[in-house]
């Protein structure tokens, strides 16, 4: 235990006259030691999490237009806090899917817990627990963004210093604004020769009424200005609300299926504490489960045995399929009655397409692949359909064309399915002479002779606001 002795020594070296500092530093070292001794119990962080009451927790998202640098900024923050090693050789760490890496886009929101030391505490032990949620920038995935924001009290609004405010900056700003989040503007990529931070500050003032003095100027590439980011998170974003001594109540943010571990739910603990072995119930289905494993994303699944009020982490509770893990559901202590949390707006499917196996005999393989993938992407709707030309297949609803493309690519890459997809269509509503209406997602399902006259037909329209630079408007 030479390492243990060194840790103890380093803990003692930083002892200050202040007793609180002393005990925290020593406790931190002890936790590290116990984790080294029993890594499988979740170690480092098990009982250490108890050192972070809600006032020492910050939960925030990074929101931005696509490619403005969210994932790179997230990498830098993870490095700054020692959550990942510098030069870990895997840029955009939180972009884990192959499709995300190939296309350079974030598709799925990801969470990471960081431990950070913020003045005025004098010890060198971390004194804040910060949960960072990296969200997708493309409009098709705004459903992921709004879900993530429900677990946050604040957001970094990242804007490219050269491109300025773009369409998704506006859409994401309003998502965060409507969720009452504290917004910290971050003007990123100031290293670029065409960067014009003053112009971006003026845009932020004009469009969102953000005081220019609030903007942080950063380069996630060179590291310039990054040291201001986490202090701003701590000083400007409120701590999560919640009652520590109430029975446990948590919001189910996301779920995915792991071949070995089963359904893994991401949760935000709103009230109380959740321990391994606890019995919990779903407010949506009434089913009860035993907590088999619980922990944080640090940045990978790290068992801790417990999660306290205000913390964000994962729970494994023997759910068989992600259909049981309804996103937006409230999980709570079994046998207690609790007020369910508000949940989320359901996903609205904008585009429908038929998916068929390239070889008709592979229907079962495709069916299996779709089932597995929808376990990790609950925003896709799936119904079976049959086409005279293509045989048995599925009609799937997506949030947009990019979402459809990404789903298709994931089916092929992650599940080895060979897929033919039909031309995407939008849902239509037909109204008959008697006033009855029918929504049609697949042209084949519209009765060719319904026995009545079609009085009207509607297709989706959007109410759009077009914002263009004033130069082009003249
Ligand atoms: N010059 C410069 N380039 C940057 C900076 N930050 C990020 N980039 C680059 O900008 C590109 C997009 O960065 P990402 O971090 O993937 O952007 P994102 O906002 O996460 O993109 P999505 O996940 O698709 O929404 C990458 O090529 C980065 O290397 C910066 O501060 N300066």
TrEMBL record:
InterPro entries referenced in this protein's UniProt entry, alphabetically: EF-4, EFTu-like_2, G_TR_CS, Small_GTP-bd, T_Tr_GTP-bd_dom
Transmembrane portions of the chain: none
Domain Tr-type G stretches: 55-241
Gene Ontology CC: one annotated term: mitochondrial matrix
EC assignment: 3.6.5.n1
Swiss-Prot/TrEMBL catalytic activity: GTP + H2O = GDP + phosphate + H(+)
Entry protein name: Translation factor GUF1 homolog, mitochondrial
Native source species: Zizania palustris (Northern wild rice)
Taxonomic lineage from the root: Eukaryota, Viridiplantae, Streptophyta, Embryophyta, Tracheophyta
């Amino acid at each position: 235990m030479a390492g243990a002795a060194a840790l103890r020594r380093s803990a003692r070296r930083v002892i200050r006259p202040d007793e609180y500092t002393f005990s925290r530093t020593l406790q931190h070292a002890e936790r590290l030691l116990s984790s080294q001794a029993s890594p499988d119990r979740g170690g480092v962080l098990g009982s250490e999490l108890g050192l972070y009451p809600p006032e020492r927790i910050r939960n925030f998202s990074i929101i931005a237009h696509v490619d403005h640098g969210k994932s790179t900024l997230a990498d830098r923050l993870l490095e700054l806090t020692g959550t990942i090693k510098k030069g870990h050789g895997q840029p955009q760490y939180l972009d884990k899917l192959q499709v995300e890496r190939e296309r350079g886009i974030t598709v799925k929101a990801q969470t990471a817990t960081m431990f950070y030391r913020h003045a005025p505490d004098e010890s060198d032990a971390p004194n804040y627990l910060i949960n960072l949620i990296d969200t997708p920038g493309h409009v098709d995935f705004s459903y992921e963004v709004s879900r993530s924001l429900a677990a946050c009290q604040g957001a970094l609004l990242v804007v490219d210093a050269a491109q300025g405010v773009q369409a998704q900056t506006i859409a994401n700003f309003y998502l965060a604004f409507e969720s009452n989040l504290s917004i910290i503007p971050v003007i990123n990529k100031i290293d670029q020769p065409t960067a014009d931070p003053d112009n971006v500050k003026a845009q932020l003032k004009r469009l969102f009424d953000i005081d220019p003095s609030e903007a942080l100027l950063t380069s996630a590439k060179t590291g310039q200005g990054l040291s201001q980011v986490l202090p701003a998170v701590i000083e400007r974003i409120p701590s999560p609300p919640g009652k520590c001594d109430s029975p446990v109540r948590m919001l189910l943010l996301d779920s995915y299926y792991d071949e070995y571990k089963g359904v893994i739910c991401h949760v935000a603990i709103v009230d109380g504490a959740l321990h391994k072995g606890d019995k919990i119930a779903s407010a949506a289905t009434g089913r009860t489960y035993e907590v088999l494993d619980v922990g944080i994303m640090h940045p990978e699944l790290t068992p801790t045995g417990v999660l306290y009020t205000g913390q964000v982490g994962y729970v494994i509770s023997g759910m068989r399929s992600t259909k049981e893990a309804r996103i937006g559901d409230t999980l709570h202590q079994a046998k207690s009655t609790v007020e369910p949390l508000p949940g989320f707006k359901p996903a609205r499917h904008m585009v429908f397409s038929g998916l068929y196996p390239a070889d008709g005999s592979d229907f079962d393989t495709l069916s299996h692949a779709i089932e597995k993938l929808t376990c990790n992407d609950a925003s896709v709707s799936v119904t079976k359909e049959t086409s005279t030309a293509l045989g048995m297949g599925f009609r799937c609803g997506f949030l947009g064309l990019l979402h459809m493309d990404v789903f298709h690519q994931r089916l092929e890459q992650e599940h080895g399915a060979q897929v033919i997809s039909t031309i995407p269509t939008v849902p239509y509503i037909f109204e008959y002479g008697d006033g009855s209406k029918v929504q049609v997602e697949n042209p084949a399902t519209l009765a060719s002779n319904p026995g009545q006259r079609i009085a009207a037909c509607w297709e989706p329209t959007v109410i759009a606001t077009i914002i263009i630079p004033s130069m082009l408007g003249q």
